[in-house]
Every structure is written in structure tokens, then in C-alpha cells.
Amino acid sequence: MRRLILAVLMSVAAIGATACGGGGPEQTRPMSRQPLTINGAGATFPYPIYSKWFDEYHKRHPDVQINYQSIGSGGGIRQLLAGTIDFGATDSPMTDEQLAKATSQVLHFPTVLGAIVPSYNLPDVTQPLNFTGAALAGVFLGTVKKWSDRTIATANPGVNLPSSDIVVVHRSDGSGTTFVWTDFLSKVSGEWKSRAGAGTAVSWPVGLGGKGNEGVAGLIKQTPNSVGYVELVYAVQNNLPYGLVQNPTGEFVKADANTVTAAAASVAASIPDDYRVSITNASGKGAYPVASFTWLLIPVKMGDRTKAETMRDFLSWMLTDGQKMAADLTYAPLPPDLVARERETIARIETGT
Question: Beta strands 226-231 and 106-120: pairing type?
């Protein structure tokens, strides 16, 4: 009996030591705790995959709910600077001026790569159209007014283009998608650069405005003879045709995971430590020229230890298991060397009180 009692006492002591952390590995996240809600907002460009990621992470950690509002990059940056959300998201890196307004240093974490495509509604045209940079700049400047204009027709021999007026559709809200699109147009057209320039919001010479990638895709779908720019997944999900775009090597390139990855590879050696980089109009062979990283914006000091620990855990998961989900939603996963760099950057998020 004495031996039995002694064995029971030793077992209880061992359990108590494990519960206090002795002898076992440190847990990044407790096995159970009070429900935690983390709020974010920003870019519509990555919304499909962010929605998937946050849902999958919640399945793995039922005590964590990550809410995300797809309001556009400009709105996400504004709310982050105002302190009304825990993290932001953008398709255009924050400017030095914006970063200076933040109460805590903001880290940029590239999450996936995506493509912006010229999507259109031409019911009688069945094959994908080719677009030069000059043609796209002319369309959005309003100087190319007809689908049958020579600027478009020359790149599409044998295609019976209608003589209809072109209806231009653009974003009405502050948007990283707009930044990527106008950044490309500014690189291929001096007239566009001088008249409108690059930015999350510009003074559009012509066109109808739609809110979010969702709004632009909806307007294109319901408006014959229209053309606009959307993130690739929105064209695919809405069954909208989209064109090939000419890159600096003269190739007309279709947007897909491989051609977007090729664009990133062409600038890989020049990606800075803060990851703020443009990859539009990349000159590599087979590179799609209207491609971009998209970023999560994470404050170094989140003001809540549990939120900071959870965000670090989520980012680590996103850079591993999360990347495997990118291709199914028409995004390109991050290059392995960039993933390795970002995993080191995660440690900069402070979890102390």
C-alpha cells in the first residue's frame, strides 16, 4: 500500500511540474484561453485568400477570430494609423510620410503575389486580346475611344473588333490595385505619368467608378463594351475574359502563377530589408508586367501581449501551410528565400508588456 501511495504522489507531482512548464517545450500559444478577436482591414486584392487563411486558422485555433474588412488599401492604412484596427493590409507599400505618422513602427510582410489584369466585356470576341502598354494608357486617358482603334487592332490581327465606344471602368476608392495599375501605366506612358501619375487614387480622365475589385468586376460584367482592371481572381471568379499584356521584352504575357513568379524573380536581388518594392513592368523573360506583392501591415508594438503572440503564430503558419493555398486562388506563393527572410522579421513583433 505504501508503494502505491508513493507512486500516486510521484505521478501527481510530475503532472504539476508539467503544468507549470517544467521539463516541457515552451508553448507559443496556450492550449486553451479566453476567446480572442483580432481586427484588420484594407486591400481587396488579397481578400479571397485572406478570407480563406483566417477561416482555416480559426479551425485550427477555435479560440481565435481574425476579422477582416475588405475596404481598400487606402482605408486600411488610414484605420491603422488611427488605431482603430490591429493590423492593416495594402497592395501599395506605405510611404515614408505615412510611416512617420504611426505611433508604433509598422512592419510590411509580403503575403502572396498577384496580378492585375485588363478585363473586358465584348460578347462577340472569343479569343483573349493582346494589349500594349500604349493601348492601355490611351484607353484610360480617353484618347483611344473605340475598340476598333488601330492602337488595339494592330496587336490583335485577325480579330473582328467592334467599332463600339469603349466604356472605361476604374476604382472609386483608395486602392492598392489602382496603385499597381497606375504605377505600370506611368512606366510605359510619359503622357499618363504627367497627366495622372501613380497612386492609390488618381484624377481619372474618363470612366465609371466601382468600389473595390468586387465593384469593378460587377460593373464590367453588366456593361457591354467595357474594360477595367481587377485582380486576377476576380476576373476568374466572375467568368470575365482578360487580356495579355506586353512586357518590356515585347512578349504578350498571360497572367498566371508562373508569369507572376517570373516577375518577382527578376527583382529578387533588389528587394530591400523592409520589403517595400514595385515589380511592375519587370523585364524578365515570361514576366507578367502588372504584378505585385501584397502586404500585411503589422505594428511592432501591438499593445496586447496575447494579440502579438497570436499574430506571430499566424504569420509563421501563413508563411508555411498558408502558402500552399495560394495557387488554388490564382495567387503565386512567395519565393522560398523571401519566406526565410520574413520568418526572421516576425521576431521583431514585440510580445512584452
Answer: antiparallel
Other CB atoms closer than 10 Å to residue 301's CB: what's the count? 13
Q: How far apart are CA 278 and CA 180, in angstroms?
A: 8
Burial 211-229 (b: 16+ CB within 10 A, else e): bbbbbbbbbbeebeebbbb
**H helix or E strand, kind and range, residue 318:** helix 305-318
Q: Quick count: other Cβ atoms within 10 Å of Cβ 36?
A: 16
- The angle subtended at Cα 146 by Cα 157 and Cα 259, nearest 5°, is 55
Write down the pTM of the prediction: 0.82
Sketch out the chain's domains with CATH numbers.
Answer: 38-113+292-348 (3.40.190.10), 115-291 (3.40.190.10)
What would you measure as the largest C-alpha separation in the chain, in angstroms?
99
Strand, coil or helix: what is 180?
helix
- What does the alpha-carbon distance between residue 142 and residue 248 come to, in Å, rounded to a whole number? 23
| Long-range CB contacts (within 8 A, 24+) of 213-219 | 213/44, 213/45, 213/47, 213/177, 214/44, 214/70, 215/171, 215/172, 216/169, 216/170, 216/171, 217/119, 219/169
What digits encode the pLDDT tens for the residues 99-143? 999 999 999 999 999 999 999 999 999 999 999 999 999 999 999
Q: Is 288 left (phi over 0), alpha (psi -120 to 50) or beta?
A: beta
Long-range pairs of 143-149 with CB within 8 A, sequence gap ≥ 24: 143/191, 147/122, 147/225
Three-state secondary structure call for residue 96: helix
Kind and range of the H or E element at 12? helix 2-19
In the sheet that holds 244-246, the strands lie side by side as 130-131, 244-246, 252-253
Distances (CA, A) of 158 to 127, 132, 135, 198: 11, 17, 17, 34
Question: pLDDT tens digits, residue range 164-184?
Answer: 999 999 999 988 899 999 999
